[in-house]
């Protein structure tokens, strides 16, 4: 049992090295952005340490600089980050049934797009220690990147930052595409999702919708649609 | 700024943590509904796809480099290459292509 937890932790740690690198690049620019909006490196770093959410933090930084009300900041975070509710629900169902409340509360600390992505596609049942290992690798990248960005501004050469900026997306692809080899219908799901996402970004009436809302809307609509036209069989559950 | 920055940060953190924590703390039993199970099965595929495209095209400032990263990543993923290697190759390819 102990050994199994340890193995899951180490696997999460290993799988999340690219996340750490990707986070470093993204949060570095977030740190630059925070200092440009008048936040200190300590405030920017603390925000990253407590939130781990790029879109939410970017919105928060802008609203803090604008001296918006506490309530509107809370609401904006709830809306932009609502997708994590769906992600946590998906993880909860994958999780080993006897997972302790303490581990459940701990792994909730970082349910990010990326950590969700790699943990959601682990073989069920999911060991929560996988997520703990994952955040142990990814979080320092996120927090240190933010602080360095806030302190040092543009020290990373722009061509390096640019090359690193595709890392997160390549990881998403590496998570989403392999299961297609065993379930061809997922190719339809992925293509439809990307097509609709693209439509949202080019159709004028829809392009004003924020990133967080767009992710929520399309995820709910398409997941429900596919759940109706193609409900999963019992054996699909572990993918 | 009239408001306290640290209060802002704590509020953001609490709201975000609650959203992440509630489903994990509350959902414990096997879901009976086949619809809900199917729905949650599709959530990661849809949400990650939406977050990838078209954003990957804009990430580098050059849609061509983004498309290169995407095509390479899809090819390697379908060939069974691990996720860390996929990300690394993609960054490297973008870097090398940007030198051309």
Report on the architecture of this protein.
The complex is a heterodimer of chains A (about 240) and B (about 100). Chain A contains 14 helices and no strands. The longest helix of chain A has 25 residues, at about 130-150. Chain A has 2 domains: about 1-165, no CATH class; about 175-239, no CATH class. With about 240 residues, chain A is mainly alpha-helical. The two termini of chain A are about 25 Å apart. The mean pLDDT of chain A is about 85. The longest helix of chain B has 22 residues, at about 5-25. Chain B is built from 5 helices and no strands. Chain B has one domain (about 5-100). Chain B is flat and about 50 Å long. Chain B has helices at about 5-25, 35-50, 55-60, 65-80, 85-100. In chain B, helix 4 runs antiparallel to helix 5 (about 85-100). With about 100 residues, chain B is mostly helical. At the A-B interface, helix 2, helix 3, helix 4, helix 5 and helix 6 of A face helix 1, helix 2, helix 4 and helix 5 of B.
Largest sheet geometry of chain B: none
Number of strands of chain A: 0
Topology of chain A as a string of helices (H) and strands (E): HHHHHHHHHHHHHH
Largest sheet of chain A: none
Radius of gyration of chain A: 19 Å
Oligomer: heterodimer
Strand content of chain B: under 5%
Structural class of chain A: mainly alpha
Helix/strand order of chain B? HHHHH
Write the layout of secondary structure elements.
The complex is a heterodimer of chains A (about 240) and B (about 100).
Chain A: H1 2-15, H2 17-36, H3 41-51, H4 54-65, H5 70-80, H6 83-94, H7 101-107, H8 113-120, H9 128-152, H10 158-164, H11 167-176, H12 185-202, H13 204-207, H14 211-229
Helix pairs in contact in A: 1-9, 2-3, 2-4, 2-9, 3-9, 4-5, 6-8, 7-9, 12-14
Chain B: H1 5-26, H2 34-52, H3 55-58, H4 63-78, H5 83-99
């Amino acid at each position: 049992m102990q050994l199994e937890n340890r193995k899951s932790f180490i696997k999460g740690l290993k799988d999340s090295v690219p996340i750490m690198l990707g986070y470093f690049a993204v949060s570095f620019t977030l740190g630059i952005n925070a200092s440009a909006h008048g936040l200190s490196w300590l405030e920017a770093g603390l925000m990253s340490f407590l939130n781990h959410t790029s879109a939410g933090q970017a919105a928060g930084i802008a609203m803090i600089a604008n001296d918006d009300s506490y309530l509107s900041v809370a609401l904006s975070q709830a809306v932009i980050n609502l997708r994590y509710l769906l992600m946590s629900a998906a993880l909860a169902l994958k999780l080993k049934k006897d997972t302790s409340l303490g581990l459940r509360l701990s792994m909730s600390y970082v349910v990010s797009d990326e950590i969700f992505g790699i943990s959601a596609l682990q073989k069920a049942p999911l060991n929560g220690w996988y997520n703990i290992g994952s955040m142990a690798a990814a979080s320092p990248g996120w927090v240190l990147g933010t602080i360095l960005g806030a302190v040092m501004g543009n020290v990373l050469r722009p061509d390096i930052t640019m090359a690193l900026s595709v890392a997160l997306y390549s990881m998403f692809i590496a998570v989403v595409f392999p299961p297609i080899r065993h379930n061809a219908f997922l190719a339809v799901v992925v293509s439809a999702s990307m097509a609709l996402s693209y439509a949202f970004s080019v159709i004028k009436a829809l392009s004003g919708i924020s990133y967080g809302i767009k992710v929520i809307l399309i995820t709910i609509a398409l997941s429900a649609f596919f759940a109706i036209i193609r409900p999963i069989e019992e054996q699909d559950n572990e993918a | 700024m009239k408001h306290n920055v640290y209060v802002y940060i704590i509020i953001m953190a609490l709201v975000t943590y609650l959203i992440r924590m509630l489903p994990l703390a509350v959902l414990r039993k096997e879901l009976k509904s086949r619809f809900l199970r199917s729905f949650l099965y599709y959530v990661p595929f849809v949400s990650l796809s939406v977050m990838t495209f078209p954003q990957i095209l804009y990430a580098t400032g050059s849609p061509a480099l983004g498309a290169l990263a995407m095509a390479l990543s899809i090819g390697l993923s379908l060939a069974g290459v691990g996720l860390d290697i996929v990300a690394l190759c993609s960054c490297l390819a973008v870097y090398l292509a940007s030198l051309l």
